[in-house]
Amino acid sequence: DTEVTQTPKHLVMGMTNKKSLKCEQHMGHRAMYWYKQKAKKPPELMFVYSYEKLSINESVPSRFSPECPNSSLLNLHLHALQPEDSALYLCASSQEQGGLSGNTIYFGEGSWLTVV
Amino acid sequence: KNEVEQSPQNLTAQEGEFITINCSYSVGISALHWLQQHPGGGIVSLFMLSSGKKKHGRLIATINIQEKHSSLHITASHPRDSAVYICAVKGRTQGGSEKLVFGKGTKLTVNP
Residue A61: what pLDDT? Predict the structure, then answer.
């Protein structure tokens, strides 16, 4: 199983809503990532969890709140988002964070988020 | 200057043609990733390489560490190869942690 599964695939939410994006992998990977991708742009790193602890926060606004309940799951809680937060949110995982040099990174299919 | 530069930005080919996508990087690396992203959004890791050449089916990736350059080749291209191909290398966050630095991608369209 080399899959990273993301749900939902599509989400439309209002600026006052609270919603969550979910990501799951069963490859035993200890590093999990959230990326944000706008149209025709490369992915931008948001958060990295290593061994279930937040290791990188790329100065992401607090309206995005990550959570890693266990080694297989990664959530991104969304609250009071702005229309400019509409984007594709990609989850990824790799064996180790520090081993980016030698580890393949696996991406999910992404969650398309629209904030209205 | 971007740390990872890809060329061309857009590429249109006829089915069966040999395709080459180039990636140059300015950071010191120990591995480079080639990724494929379809319009649906999901990203697939095609290759991770640190030296020489790798082949998978009709895809070939090469890297020259001294010249800081990598190429992705597609032989006998097919319309299903139409996608955005992204080169990524290890870089550093402002805090000094490792992260992937992505090129802007090459949009490939293969016409039947």
Answer: 96
| Residue A37 CA, distance from chain mean position | 11
Question: Which of A101, A103, A111, A112 to mutate to test binding with chain B, by most B CBs within 10 Å of its CB?
Answer: A101
| A102–B50 C-beta distance less than 8 A | yes
Q: What is the pLDDT of residues A87-113, one digit of tens each?
A: 999 999 998 775 555 678 899 999 999
Whole-number Å distance between alpha carbons of B72 and A26: 30
Q: pLDDT tens for residues A25-64?
A: 999 999 999 999 999 899 999 999 999 999 989 989 999 9
* Strand runs labelled E in chain A: 4-7, 10-13, 18-25, 31-37, 44-50, 53-57, 64-70, 73-79, 87-94, 106-107, 111-115
How far is Cα B48 from Cα A3, in angstroms, rounded to an integer? 17
Q: Which residue of B has its CA nearest to A89?
A: B41
